[in-house]
Amino acid sequence: MPPGFQPSTGTKSWTRRELLRAGALGLFGLSMPGLIGPRAATLAGSKTASFGRAKSCILLFMWGGPSHQDTWDLKPEAPREIRGEFRPISTNVPGIQICEHFPRLARRVDKLCIVRSMTHDNGDHTPSTHYLLTGEPPPRDTDKRAQWPHLGSVLSALGHGRGPLPPFVSMRPKLPNEVPRFVEQSQGQFAGWLGPLHDPLTIDADPSLPEYRVGELTLQPEISVDRLELRRDLLATLDRRLDAFNPHFAALDQNHRRAFELLTSASAQRGAFNLDEEPRVIRERYGMNPHGQSVLQARRLVERGVPLVTVFWPNDGTKNVSVYWDTHSRNFTDLRTRLMPVADQALAALLDDLRERGMLDETLVIWTGEFGRNPRVGQRSSDAGAGADGRDHWAGCFTSVLAGGGVKGGYVHGRSDAQAAYPAENPVTPRDLIASVYHLLGVPEDQVLVDAGGRPQFVRPGKAITDLFL
Questions:
Q1: Which of 62, 329, 410, 432 could cross-link with 387 by S-S, CB 3.0 to 4.6 Å?
Q2: CB environment 266-281: b (16+ within 10 A), e (fewer)
Q3: pTM of the model
Q4: What is the CA radius of gyration of the chain?
């Protein structure tokens, strides 16, 4: 963010003409603060009780596209080739049913806001991820600096977070002997046009392993704090000389300072990343597997002031099966044995843990994938196709789930049609879902940030869905 820039705090939406005018004024020495500051006085009267209710967010991203009609939105009355093999079960909220292979979550539906009418138009994994991580359609330019910034990057740019811990962390456990990591190619994971300063701290280490540690944030035993301080002073001198040549060096300089603060902050380092401090019973509650322990790591981070943590579903490296939630074949076998039990355990544990710690009301939890699966088993709807027991990609309709942080519990928003192919009522685009998330996190509707080219950009063009809020 340019020095001296203050984000908008007003309520009136800006027009394209106003944004262009704001950018032009900068050429004549007039700053954004002077242009938008007077609107601050009108903000208080426009906010609802749900605005800013969430102080942090844990985004559980089920990469690969979970089959919505086999998890959250079953169609028991449909023909077998549509309804599949699973049956719905009752939950602790009368009238709401979910899949039999989510038994723990079925007992916690009173905490869940289930959006069954999600929809967009891109059935390709890597660009469609951009929709759900940013709210915006993927740009034609695949360079990550041309992309829209991730939710966490926006919070970082707005100064959310406290202490030496990074404001945005991405958990992407990388497991040995796995197939190529498509998650690494997915768009929308980084700060995009906000620049590298607001990229996440990415953790690829597997937190379920005994040797788990975040290597970049571990001070080597042979290096004393005094020696580290000398290195920092030398590096800072070099960085200052390089800043004038490339703005990326300035971002690197700030990231170096943050890393040094974290390395020399024993309490933050010890408390945030040492899962061995957790009682064994708590670790086992989440599941002693890469996803479960990543979700536990996310809880420990938000507990210590990190505003947003994304947990990507890991590829467990199992051979000859569909990877991630991308069940082109073995849809029912993999959902029943490898996918749903782990997801069920981890999300249920997180909800309980947050509630027991008094954190659920101020922590927004999101469970989603980038799209859903084809309504008809074995039907081809993408270049990838589907086997006789699989479901292909499908963006026409899918389900996202929220909890805590100001959303209604025991509530279903929207409805899909009889085949779970398209929304039948209250369609929800990623843009509006992410606008709702921004609302809960206290980002105003007219929030503007400046991109790398000095142009002001709205960060939440969508419309918040007020029916989701308490």
A1: 329
A2: eebbeebbebeebeee
A3: 0.85
A4: 22
